[in-house]
Amino acid sequence: MLATVAEQQDISVQSSTPELEILYQDDYVVAINKPSGLLVHRSWLDTHATEFAVQKLRDQIGQHVYPVHRLDRPTSGVLLFVLDKDSARHLMQQFIDQTTEKNYLAVVRGHLDQGILDYPLKYQYDKIADKKADMTKPPQEAVTEYRCLAKTEIPIAVGPYQASRYSLMELIPKTGRKHQLRRHMKHLRHPIVGDTSHGDGKHNTMFRENFAIHRLLLHAAYLSFTHPKTEQKIEVHAPITGDFLRVLSDINLPYKFRE
Protein backbone atom coordinates (compact mmCIF):
# COMPACT_ATOMS: atom_id res chain seq x y z
CA MET A 1 0.00 0.00 0.00
CA LEU A 2 1.33 3.46 -0.90
CA ALA A 3 2.01 5.87 1.94
CA THR A 4 -0.22 8.90 2.21
CA VAL A 5 1.18 12.40 1.80
CA ALA A 6 0.91 12.87 5.56
CA GLU A 7 3.01 9.77 6.18
CA GLN A 8 5.64 10.84 3.68
CA GLN A 9 5.99 14.11 5.57
CA ASP A 10 6.10 12.27 8.92
CA ILE A 11 3.18 14.22 10.39
CA SER A 12 -0.15 13.35 11.92
CA VAL A 13 -3.39 14.01 10.06
CA GLN A 14 -5.41 16.56 11.96
CA SER A 15 -7.44 19.68 11.49
CA SER A 16 -6.61 23.05 13.00
CA THR A 17 -5.43 22.50 16.57
CA PRO A 18 -7.51 23.89 19.46
CA GLU A 19 -6.14 26.06 22.26
CA LEU A 20 -2.88 24.70 23.64
CA GLU A 21 -2.92 22.89 26.99
CA ILE A 22 -0.71 24.81 29.44
CA LEU A 23 0.98 22.49 31.94
CA TYR A 24 2.99 25.06 33.89
CA GLN A 25 3.19 28.86 33.84
CA ASP A 26 4.78 31.63 35.89
CA ASP A 27 6.32 35.03 35.12
CA TYR A 28 9.31 33.47 33.35
CA VAL A 29 8.45 29.98 32.08
CA VAL A 30 5.58 28.34 30.21
CA ALA A 31 5.27 24.63 29.40
CA ILE A 32 2.63 23.21 27.06
CA ASN A 33 1.44 19.77 26.03
CA LYS A 34 2.29 19.98 22.32
CA PRO A 35 -0.03 17.98 20.08
CA SER A 36 1.41 15.63 17.48
CA GLY A 37 1.67 17.26 14.06
CA LEU A 38 2.32 20.80 15.28
CA LEU A 39 5.62 22.41 14.30
CA VAL A 40 7.45 24.34 17.02
CA HIS A 41 8.18 27.21 14.63
CA ARG A 42 8.36 27.95 10.91
CA SER A 43 10.54 25.48 9.07
CA TRP A 44 11.70 24.64 5.58
CA LEU A 45 10.48 21.11 6.34
CA ASP A 46 6.96 22.29 5.51
CA THR A 47 6.63 25.67 3.85
CA HIS A 48 2.85 25.20 3.61
CA ALA A 49 2.24 24.85 7.37
CA THR A 50 0.08 27.62 8.83
CA GLU A 51 0.17 26.81 12.55
CA PHE A 52 3.16 26.84 14.87
CA ALA A 53 3.47 26.33 18.62
CA VAL A 54 5.39 29.61 19.09
CA GLN A 55 2.72 31.70 17.37
CA LYS A 56 -0.24 29.87 18.94
CA LEU A 57 1.15 30.22 22.46
CA ARG A 58 2.04 33.89 21.91
CA ASP A 59 -1.48 34.63 20.76
CA GLN A 60 -2.99 32.56 23.57
CA ILE A 61 -1.17 34.27 26.47
CA GLY A 62 -0.59 37.65 24.81
CA GLN A 63 3.20 37.64 25.26
CA HIS A 64 6.26 36.86 23.19
CA VAL A 65 7.65 33.41 23.93
CA TYR A 66 10.99 31.75 23.16
CA PRO A 67 11.34 27.97 22.77
CA VAL A 68 14.39 26.58 24.58
CA HIS A 69 14.40 23.08 23.10
CA ARG A 70 12.57 21.18 20.37
CA LEU A 71 10.25 18.28 19.83
CA ASP A 72 9.97 16.57 16.47
CA ARG A 73 6.78 17.50 14.67
CA PRO A 74 5.14 14.07 15.09
CA THR A 75 6.05 13.83 18.79
CA SER A 76 3.60 15.11 21.40
CA GLY A 77 4.22 16.20 24.99
CA VAL A 78 6.09 18.68 27.17
CA LEU A 79 7.47 21.66 25.27
CA LEU A 80 9.14 24.43 27.25
CA PHE A 81 9.16 28.19 26.51
CA VAL A 82 10.46 31.23 28.36
CA LEU A 83 9.24 34.83 28.33
CA ASP A 84 12.57 36.68 28.25
CA LYS A 85 15.91 36.21 26.51
CA ASP A 86 17.96 36.02 29.72
CA SER A 87 15.90 33.03 30.91
CA ALA A 88 16.21 31.54 27.44
CA ARG A 89 20.02 31.55 27.64
CA HIS A 90 19.93 30.01 31.11
CA LEU A 91 17.59 27.17 30.14
CA MET A 92 19.13 26.48 26.74
CA GLN A 93 22.44 25.93 28.51
CA GLN A 94 20.80 23.33 30.74
CA PHE A 95 19.74 21.38 27.66
CA ILE A 96 23.24 21.71 26.19
CA ASP A 97 24.80 20.52 29.45
CA GLN A 98 22.20 17.71 29.68
CA THR A 99 21.22 18.66 33.24
CA THR A 100 17.51 18.44 32.45
CA GLU A 101 15.63 15.14 32.86
CA LYS A 102 13.29 13.83 30.15
CA ASN A 103 11.04 10.77 30.06
CA TYR A 104 9.05 9.61 27.05
CA LEU A 105 6.32 7.04 26.48
CA ALA A 106 6.20 4.99 23.30
CA VAL A 107 4.40 2.01 21.80
CA VAL A 108 6.92 -0.29 20.12
CA ARG A 109 6.63 -3.43 18.03
CA GLY A 110 7.19 -6.65 19.92
CA HIS A 111 7.82 -7.44 23.55
CA LEU A 112 10.79 -5.61 25.05
CA ASP A 113 11.85 -5.66 28.70
CA GLN A 114 14.38 -3.20 30.13
CA GLY A 115 17.97 -2.15 29.70
CA ILE A 116 20.36 0.59 28.71
CA LEU A 117 21.43 1.02 25.11
CA ASP A 118 24.80 2.69 24.57
CA TYR A 119 24.95 2.94 20.79
CA PRO A 120 26.64 5.92 19.07
CA LEU A 121 24.65 7.61 16.32
CA LYS A 122 25.96 9.32 13.22
CA TYR A 123 24.80 12.91 12.95
CA GLN A 124 21.78 13.29 10.64
CA TYR A 125 22.24 16.28 8.38
CA ASP A 126 19.45 18.54 7.13
CA LYS A 127 19.63 19.02 3.37
CA ILE A 128 19.20 22.77 3.66
CA ALA A 129 20.31 23.79 7.15
CA ASP A 130 23.52 21.72 7.03
CA LYS A 131 24.62 22.45 3.46
CA LYS A 132 28.05 23.69 4.60
CA ALA A 133 28.47 21.39 7.59
CA ASP A 134 31.36 18.99 8.06
CA MET A 135 30.00 15.70 6.71
CA THR A 136 32.83 13.63 8.20
CA LYS A 137 31.84 13.84 11.86
CA PRO A 138 32.34 10.53 13.71
CA PRO A 139 29.30 8.92 15.40
CA GLN A 140 28.25 10.72 18.58
CA GLU A 141 27.72 9.09 21.96
CA ALA A 142 24.05 8.18 22.44
CA VAL A 143 22.60 6.47 25.51
CA THR A 144 18.97 5.52 26.18
CA GLU A 145 17.51 3.79 29.21
CA TYR A 146 14.32 1.86 28.53
CA ARG A 147 11.75 0.08 30.69
CA CYS A 148 8.61 -1.85 29.83
CA LEU A 149 5.39 -0.63 31.46
CA ALA A 150 2.94 -3.04 29.81
CA LYS A 151 2.75 -5.69 27.09
CA THR A 152 -0.05 -6.85 24.84
CA GLU A 153 -0.83 -9.25 22.01
CA ILE A 154 -3.66 -8.59 19.57
CA PRO A 155 -5.24 -11.15 17.20
CA ILE A 156 -4.40 -9.32 13.98
CA ALA A 157 -1.99 -10.83 11.49
CA VAL A 158 0.94 -8.75 10.27
CA GLY A 159 3.19 -10.53 7.79
CA PRO A 160 3.56 -14.27 8.54
CA TYR A 161 2.36 -13.97 12.14
CA GLN A 162 -1.26 -14.57 13.21
CA ALA A 163 -1.01 -12.21 16.18
CA SER A 164 0.92 -9.01 16.84
CA ARG A 165 2.82 -8.05 19.98
CA TYR A 166 3.43 -4.55 21.31
CA SER A 167 4.93 -2.93 24.41
CA LEU A 168 4.33 0.39 26.14
CA MET A 169 7.81 1.65 26.98
CA GLU A 170 9.26 4.36 29.17
CA LEU A 171 12.27 5.80 27.34
CA ILE A 172 14.81 7.98 29.13
CA PRO A 173 17.40 9.64 26.88
CA LYS A 174 20.72 10.27 28.64
CA THR A 175 22.02 12.16 25.62
CA GLY A 176 20.23 14.39 23.13
CA ARG A 177 20.94 13.19 19.61
CA LYS A 178 18.65 13.86 16.66
CA HIS A 179 15.84 11.26 16.51
CA GLN A 180 17.74 9.33 19.19
CA LEU A 181 14.80 7.40 20.63
CA ARG A 182 13.40 6.49 17.24
CA ARG A 183 16.78 5.35 15.94
CA HIS A 184 17.64 3.44 19.11
CA MET A 185 14.34 1.55 19.08
CA LYS A 186 14.97 0.67 15.46
CA HIS A 187 18.45 -0.59 16.38
CA LEU A 188 16.87 -2.85 19.03
CA ARG A 189 14.47 -4.14 16.33
CA HIS A 190 11.52 -2.76 18.28
CA PRO A 191 10.62 0.33 16.24
CA ILE A 192 8.07 2.85 17.48
CA VAL A 193 4.62 2.44 15.94
CA GLY A 194 3.80 5.19 13.46
CA ASP A 195 7.44 6.04 12.71
CA THR A 196 7.55 6.51 8.95
CA SER A 197 11.29 7.24 8.89
CA HIS A 198 12.69 4.53 11.18
CA GLY A 199 9.73 2.21 11.72
CA ASP A 200 8.00 -0.86 10.29
CA GLY A 201 5.68 -0.01 7.40
CA LYS A 202 3.53 -3.14 7.78
CA HIS A 203 2.72 -2.42 11.41
CA ASN A 204 2.13 1.27 10.66
CA THR A 205 -0.35 0.25 7.99
CA MET A 206 -2.11 -2.14 10.36
CA PHE A 207 -2.55 0.64 12.94
CA ARG A 208 -3.90 3.02 10.29
CA GLU A 209 -6.39 0.51 8.92
CA ASN A 210 -7.57 -1.04 12.21
CA PHE A 211 -7.20 1.78 14.75
CA ALA A 212 -7.18 4.99 12.67
CA ILE A 213 -3.72 5.91 13.97
CA HIS A 214 -1.96 8.36 11.65
CA ARG A 215 0.70 9.58 14.06
CA LEU A 216 3.91 8.58 15.76
CA LEU A 217 3.18 6.91 19.12
CA LEU A 218 5.89 8.81 20.98
CA HIS A 219 5.07 11.25 23.78
CA ALA A 220 7.30 13.48 25.94
CA ALA A 221 5.66 12.70 29.28
CA TYR A 222 8.00 14.40 31.76
CA LEU A 223 10.56 17.20 31.94
CA SER A 224 12.45 18.57 34.92
CA PHE A 225 14.75 21.59 34.95
CA THR A 226 16.19 24.24 37.26
CA HIS A 227 14.13 27.42 37.25
CA PRO A 228 16.15 30.28 35.68
CA LYS A 229 15.27 32.73 38.48
CA THR A 230 14.41 30.81 41.66
CA GLU A 231 16.89 27.95 40.95
CA GLN A 232 14.29 25.50 42.25
CA LYS A 233 13.72 22.17 40.53
CA ILE A 234 10.57 22.30 38.38
CA GLU A 235 8.87 19.08 37.29
CA VAL A 236 6.32 19.05 34.47
CA HIS A 237 4.13 16.05 33.55
CA ALA A 238 2.13 15.83 30.33
CA PRO A 239 -0.78 13.37 30.12
CA ILE A 240 -1.31 11.31 26.98
CA THR A 241 -4.47 12.48 25.24
CA GLY A 242 -6.53 12.01 22.09
CA ASP A 243 -5.92 9.18 19.65
CA PHE A 244 -2.80 8.00 21.51
CA LEU A 245 -4.80 7.51 24.71
CA ARG A 246 -7.64 5.86 22.79
CA VAL A 247 -5.43 3.32 21.05
CA LEU A 248 -3.81 2.26 24.33
CA SER A 249 -7.29 1.21 25.46
CA ASP A 250 -8.07 -0.38 22.09
CA ILE A 251 -5.03 -2.67 22.23
CA ASN A 252 -5.16 -3.26 26.00
CA LEU A 253 -2.02 -1.42 27.08
CA PRO A 254 -2.92 0.04 30.52
CA TYR A 255 -1.71 3.57 31.12
CA LYS A 256 -1.92 5.61 34.32
CA PHE A 257 -1.02 9.29 34.32
CA ARG A 258 1.59 10.16 36.95
CA GLU A 259 1.24 13.70 38.26
Write structural notes for this entry.
- It is a single chain.
- With 259 residues, this protein is of the alpha+beta class.
- The chain has helices spanning 5-8, 53-61, 85-97, 180-187, 201-211, 242-250; strands at residues 21-25, 29-34, 66-67, 76-82, 101-109, 114-118, 143-154, 164-173, 218-226, 233-237.
- The protein has a single domain (5-250), classed as Pseudouridine synthase, CATH 3.30.2350.10.
- It contains six helices and ten strands; from the N terminus they run αββαββαββββααββα.
- Strands 1, 2, 3, 4, 5, 6, 7, 8, 9 and 10 form a ten-stranded mixed beta sheet that branches.
- β9 (218-226) and β10 form a beta hairpin.
- The chain is globular and about 55 Å long.
- The model is unreliable at 1-9 and 11-15 (pLDDT under 50).
Short note summarizing the structure:
By secondary structure, the protein is of the alpha+beta class. The protein is built from 6 helices and 10 strands.
Order of helices and strands: HEEHEEHEEEEHHEEH
Q: How would you describe the oligomerization state of the chains in this entry?
A: single chain
CATH architecture group name: 2-Layer Sandwich
Secondary structure class reads alpha+beta
CATH topology: Pseudouridine synthase
What distance separates the N and C termini? 41 Å
Specify the CATH homologous superfamily. Answer: Pseudouridine synthase
Give the CATH class: Alpha Beta
Poorly predicted sequence stretches spanning 5 or more consecutive residues: 1-9, 11-15
- What would the principal axes of the Cα set say about the shape? globular
Report strand %.
25-35%
Number of helical stretches of at least 4 residues: 6
| Structural Rg | 18 Å
Average predicted local confidence, pLDDT: 88
Estimate the helix proportion, in percent.
Answer: 10-25%
**Could you give the count of β-strands?**
10
> In the residues, how many domains can be counted?
1
Main sheet summary: 10 strands, mixed
